[in-house]
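Memo to structure team: turn this sequence into structure tokens by end of day. - J.P.
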Amino acid sequence: MKIKTPCSTSNLGPGFDTLGLALNRYLILTVELNKPQTRITVEGNGKEHIAADETNLVYCAAKITAKKFKKNLPAFHLHLHNEIPAYGGLGGSGAAIAGGIFLANEILQLKLSREEMLNIAVSIEGHPDNVSAALMGGLTINCFDEERTVRCRSVKIEQPLSVITCSPHFQVQTKQARKILPQQVSLQDAVTNIENVSSLVAALICGDVDALRYATAEKLHEQYRAALIPGFNDVKKEALNAGALSFNISGAGPTVFSFARNNEKEIGEAMQRAFSSHHQHSSVEIMNIENNGAMRCE
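Reply from structure team:
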């Protein structure tokens, strides 16, 4: 059995903890059943930081899912091939959690809906943006109802739109990126974010890519998290000068990204040069939107 789950960018500027967008780099799981004992092997990006024992996040998510339904996982060989850039901000943990839940659903024939899998994923991850994109694909728009059940809408994005990511070679801990944020914001800043996230969702659905130039602006987190990314303002300036439609932090960072319709290579190189001027090595990926979520390949 082979399963692949996409990586993702989240927030997209003003959609803090709400919006996710699946991208075409994957965590690929190959599973061989009927083994005498469970074995986990890893290859690909960041393999030295991915556990190859029962603390592996894919395995943990699968085990939590099985336990929830009073089932036991059989022994298997789980091989992970990671295509997702490993420096943070591109939903690696979300892909692992989604992949583990999807794996348990397949092996144990639980017949869970995507919505049921998502709520298990959020109970593990704590927020829905990346795990929803990994499970559902496309642009995911998330909220909680009064009982704290996640309600997600996945929108397929049909217009050609590139996502250029640039990952500086250091880590930003999500806890640190959250701790730096203020607990209160002004009414005007809150209204600005509501305006922009509404415009952003409408623009992506309607294909109005020019609106990305203003609708990705935000007031809740990036001005604070920018301090954790050396050269942030210069990287932003150079990306926009090279023709990017937008520039934002991907998730909690340190990866940054731009939407673009052309000049993708030039935009990526401009971001790398700007990081280099601040003594930061970085890696660029030019990605497309993935409209499918976690899926069984064979």
